[in-house]
Amino acid sequence: MKGPTQADVARLAGVSRATVSHVLNNRLDRQVPVSEETRRRVLEAVIELDYVPDARALALRSGSTKTIGLIIPDIHNPHFWEVVDGVEKEASAAGYHILLSSISPEDKNAEDIFKNLSHRRIDGLIMVPSFVYQSEEAQKTLAQLVKRRIPIVGIMADRGEMSFKIDRVLSDYHDATLEAMAYLLSLQHRRIGFIFGIAVPELGNDRLLAYRESLQAAGVAIDPSLIVECGPTIEDSYHATRQLLELPSRPTALLAINDFLAIGALRAIKDMNLDVPQDVSVLGYDDVPFANYLIPRLSTASKDGELMGREACKLLLARLEDSDRPRQEIRLPARLILRESTGPAR
Prior knowledge:
Blueprint: H1 6-13, H2 17-24, H3 36-49, H4 55-62, E1 67-72, H5 78-93, E2 97-102, H6 110-118, E3 124-127, H7 136-147, E4 152-156, E5 167-170, H8 174-186, E6 192-197, H9 205-217, E7 227-230, H10 234-245, E8 253-256, H11 259-271, E9 281-283, E10 300-302, H12 305-321, E11 329-331, E12 335-337
Parallel strand pairs: 1-2, 1-3, 3-4, 4-5, 5-11, 6-7, 6-8, 8-9
Antiparallel strand pairs: 10-12
Helix pairs in contact: 1-2, 1-3, 5-12, 6-7, 8-9, 10-11
């Protein structure tokens, strides 16, 4: 059934449609004076009819949808839900809603999903642009959004220059990995494995490069067999860990590219009748909520996903207020968090 319209509200309240529009939009001017009695009748009619304004019509009249698009690369990774939480809190406080999409780089429909979202009426876009690195078509779509002057904020690890001049929140794990490796090396770990489970390798280079730099600086030869590339799921990391632990000279410590994959590593170590950290130390990244409740509690590094989301949303809201402001970059440092899953090499 068709819902009630402004004309229905006007009939019930005994006023013109223009008066209903002015009351609902809280507009008072000399051309359309509205008395308190008239306002009361209109509002009572709205309640009685359960009238809800058409969001699309409001957006067309105001030029604003009060909607922010948000793209994350992996709906299964809790780290990105922390980012979503931060964006949503800031957006909600400013009266905006979130239109969320998860676009995985390996999704064959990624380009279509992104293009479909770009055609929606949104006021701005916040994105972790991992899939853009993989797709020329996605880069074209992004270029069109920039040309239309749609405010865009990228949440990124890459410190390099982009071809698109957009506001950015930058945070990577390079320095935190140097710190983590220095800590493991101080505990006499020399065979340190690396579970490189990431869909877009460029997004993990901050950790992999620091891993290699640390070994070279310590005079430890880099063993390619200790670096296992795998998929981004827990199952992938489980098999990658077993592969590492079945080496003739197995590693005494493991870095997992994120806490999500560290779960698979912990399970594989236990299934091979080894203990953490007595036989193998494990260190992840992101400090997702469950990291402090695993057995043992997981050592990790944190970029504070919620803070990243909040800062990205603040940049977008500021851009909506002033579209001509200079491009902004916010750098957020990562920190190392040592818990129970790391200890001296046996």
